[in-house]
Amino acid sequence: MQTSIAINPETPAPAKDLGHRHYNGKGIVHSVESCGAVDGPGLRYVLFLQGCLMRCLYCHNRDTWDLHTEQAQEMTVPEVMKQVMSYRHYLRATGGGVTATGGEPLLQYEFVRDWFTACQEHDIHTCLDSNGYALHYDSILDDLLDHTNLVMLDLKQIDPEIHKVLVGIPNTKTLKFAHYLAERKQPARVRYVVVPGYTDDDRSAHLLGEFIADMDNVEMVELLPYHELGAHKWALCGDTYKLTGVHPPPKETILKIKSILESYGKNIIY
């Protein structure tokens, strides 16, 4: 029998350890997808959070970079949970749950911690889709990860120089977070976007394979072929899309990278 919850959308989440900066129990939300099929196992309620410090050349959510925009809305955990609970039967029936993505959800890790805690109180599977840009290693992060069933970690490029060209900043924080997940034995899935000219070569695939080879917590690697679907958002944000003319990689390239990563003992999906 399902347990019902009484929710007052005007009431903020209980304040436990409010954490850093000016967290007031609310998340800054870009958008919601009620039945996402590509953001973790099964059908998922997907919350896209505002804010990201990476500047990926291929970003298809360019409009999530800024923490505050005219389109963003603030939501409390009870407000989000009211929506989640209305979909919980569909989510559970497919082996799904909820996913926090963005943007970069770790920039709002207090809110995600509170939301995932509420979800697990109702036995709802939680997934953190992150580029690993953790600013603080503290009790809040640990509490968040304790209430996370799966981390989908974007490892964009292991070579530090190529990473800076592709993403705009070093990969130091991401690699540190990957090691931290491994130390915690945190169930994780690595996501790797295959971008022609940046991540589609044999050397880059071997670097990734070597980096994750001994990480027993990485259950699989998901290869994501580059696409141009978000290019129009750059113009809407007043920016120039620098990968114009770059097209999705051929299947042969994906299969080659798949074979390389499999040689390091990892399961590969694409």
Automatic annotation (TrEMBL):
Cell compartments where the protein resides: Cytoplasm
Keywords, ordered alphabetically: 4Fe-4S, Carbohydrate metabolism, Cytoplasm, Glucose metabolism, Iron, Iron-sulfur, Metal-binding, Oxidoreductase, Pyruvate, S-adenosyl-L-methionine
InterPro entries listed in its UniProt record: Aldolase_TIM (IPR013785), Organic_radical-activating (IPR034457), Organic_radical_activase (IPR012839), PFL1_activating (IPR012838), Radical_activat_CS (IPR001989), rSAM (IPR007197), rSAM_sf (IPR058240)
Cofactor(s) this protein cannot do without: [4Fe-4S] cluster
Domain Radical SAM core: 38-267
One annotated GO biological process: glucose metabolic process
Main EC class the enzyme belongs to: oxidoreductase
Primary subcellular site in the record, as a coarse category: cytoplasm
Co-factor: note: Binds 1 [4Fe-4S] cluster. The cluster is coordinated with 3 cysteines and an exchangeable S-adenosyl-L-methionine.
Catalytic activity: glycyl-[formate C-acetyltransferase] + reduced [flavodoxin] + S-adenosyl-L-methionine = glycin-2-yl radical-[formate C-acetyltransferase] + semiquinone [flavodoxin] + 5'-deoxyadenosine + L-methionine + H(+)
Gene Ontology terms, MF aspect: 4 iron, 4 sulfur cluster binding; [formate-C-acetyltransferase]-activating enzyme activity; lyase activity; metal ion binding
EC number: 1.97.1.4
Matches recorded under SUPFAM superfamilies: Radical SAM enzymes
Keyword Oxidoreductase among record annotations: yes
GO annotation, cellular component aspect: cytoplasm
Entry annotated with the keyword Cytoplasm: yes
Gene3D superfamilies: Aldolase class I
Homology family: Belongs to the organic radical-activating enzymes family.
Function, in words: Activation of pyruvate formate-lyase under anaerobic conditions by generation of an organic free radical, using S-adenosylmethionine and reduced flavodoxin as cosubstrates to produce 5'-deoxy-adenosine. Activation of pyruvate formate-lyase 1 under anaerobic conditions by generation of an organic free radical, using S-adenosylmethionine and reduced flavodoxin as cosubstrates to produce 5'-deoxy-adenosine.
Protein name, entry field: Pyruvate formate-lyase-activating enzyme
Gene: pflA
